[in-house]
Amino acid sequence: IELFNPTAEKIFGYSSSEVIGRNISMLMPQPYQSEHDGYMEKYHKTGEAEILGLKREVWGLRKDGSVFPMELAVNEFYIGERRAYTGVVQDITEKKHAQWSLERLTRQNELILKSVGDGIIGINLEGKITFYNPSALKMTRYDEGELEGKSLHEVLNLLRGEGVHSARV
């Protein structure tokens, strides 16, 4: 590590004097920490880059030992004949927590919708069906995928009489 800016100090919890001159792998959790030098050696021998020029999600290691999600972009550049690398990181802990919470709530909602015996149909502001549960399918006698995008008004009108579904297209 040759440069470590104030934002990096804040993200990782180290002062620049603690990291300058040390291997960048100190900011990586295992197994990446022990594999880093091998990746670099392979790149220098073969020219096959695995992360250069890409922005990707990886894990970082703070001074306090905590591991956190971050976005990393690594690029290579030359100063005369000397090869160097620059890494740009962004702590995405809050973004990932929000994403994980949304995924958890989505799974919970799916479980609730699938298990409830009452038919549930969700609509948007235009009155078009956006979601439904299996009980709603059973009650309306529609197949999976047929209700989404239909007008709730249209579906309810079709259900008013006996045998109405035999006439639907």
Question: What does it look like?
Answer:
The protein is built from six helices and five strands. The chain has helices spanning 6-12, 16-19, 32-46, 93-115, 134-140, 152-158, and strands at residues 55-61, 67-79, 82-91, 121-123, 129-132. A three-stranded antiparallel beta sheet has the order 1-2-3. A two-stranded antiparallel sheet has the order 4-5. A hairpin with a 5-residue loop joins β4 (121-123) and β5. The radius of gyration is 27 Å and the shape is elongated.
Task: Give the secondary structure arrangement, pairings included.
Blueprint: H1 6-12, H2 16-19, H3 32-46, E1 55-61, E2 67-79, E3 82-91, H4 93-115, E4 121-123, E5 129-132, H5 134-140, H6 152-158
Antiparallel strand pairs: 1-2, 2-3, 4-5
Please give the alpha-carbon distance between the first and last residues: 68 Å
Main sheet makeup? 3 strands, antiparallel
Strand segment count: 5
pLDDT under 50 segments (min length 5)?
A: 162-169
Average the pLDDT over all residues and give the rounded result: 89
Number of distinct helices: 6
